[in-house]
Design goal:
It comes from Sinorhizobium fredii (strain USDA 257). This is Cupin type-2 domain-containing protein. The protein is built from 3 helices and 13 strands, in the order H-E-E-E-E-E-E-E-H-H-E-E-E-E-E-E. The protein is mainly beta and about 220 residues long. The longest helix has 11 residues. The termini are far apart.
């Protein structure tokens, strides 16, 4: 789709290439106003528990699926959205047991071998530079939206943080700047990918439009 983020496409949402009888769980979540993300989790072909973890209906499908991914839009950081998709607390052990790890609160930083998949929308930096911005109110919201990750941010260097993870990222839409430990910067745009080796960094958005990035964080061991 030219000039369109497929994740936010209503056509993509409603014209699913599989039926309710296929071995998939399909969950839609709100991530920003009208945008939605489809989460598809493949599992063994067996009946799905009728007691849903969340009460969600996917457009274009006739049945309800258990589990709703919870996205958080921060009131005191307008435009910032954190949407955790899935986590594993260790090395996965198929088959899937129908337990949705996002149904309960918990840290987004997993131990060695664990993983976190999340999608984050970064508003323009101008939001945080506004005279109306209240870091004393925004801070607790960030801590609740990204537990574990938010606590790694440096108080004296806003935005800078270091997590004990190997991070894979891909920019889904917009433009964003990766600031490195030495102050150097790398500009990234839609379609660009990155690998972060547990190093100190910050995400900056000096642009006028939000940027959305998908991340997979792998819990790292120690040498």
């Amino acid at each position: 789709m030219a000039a369109e983020n497929w994740l936010a496409s209503d056509t993509f949402m409603t014209n699913a290439p599989f039926s309710a009888d296929d071995p998939f769980l399909v969950i839609a979540i709100e991530v920003r106003d009208r945008s939605r993300i489809r989460r598809v989790t493949q599992h063994d072909r067996e009946p799905v528990d009728d007691d849903p973890l969340g009460d969600g209906t996917v457009p274009g499908n006739r049945r309800r699926y258990p589990g709703i991914v919870g996205s958080v839009t921060l009131k005191h950081t307008p435009g910032f959205v954190c949407a955790p998709i899935w986590t594993t607390a260790g090395v996965p052990s198929p088959p899937y047991d129908s337990t949705d790890p996002m149904a309960s609160d918990g840290t987004l930083l997993q131990p060695a071998g664990g993983s976190t998949f999340l999608i984050v929308t970064f508003p323009p930096d101008a939001v945080m530079m506004s005279p109306d911005f209240r870091p004393d109110l925004a801070g607790p919201e960030h801590a609740a939206a990204a537990p574990g990750i938010a606590q790694t941010f440096e108080m004296d260097n806003p935005g800078m943080h270091t997590t004990p993870t190997m991070d894979y990222g891909i920019v889904l839409s917009g433009k964003i700047t990766l600031e490195l430990d030495d102050g150097a910067t790398v500009n990234l745009g839609a379609g660009d990918s990155l690998v972060q080796h547990g190093t100190r960094h910050a995400w900056r958005n000096p642009n006028s439009e939000p940027a959305t990035v998908a991340f997979v964080l792998i819990g790292a061991g120690t040498r």
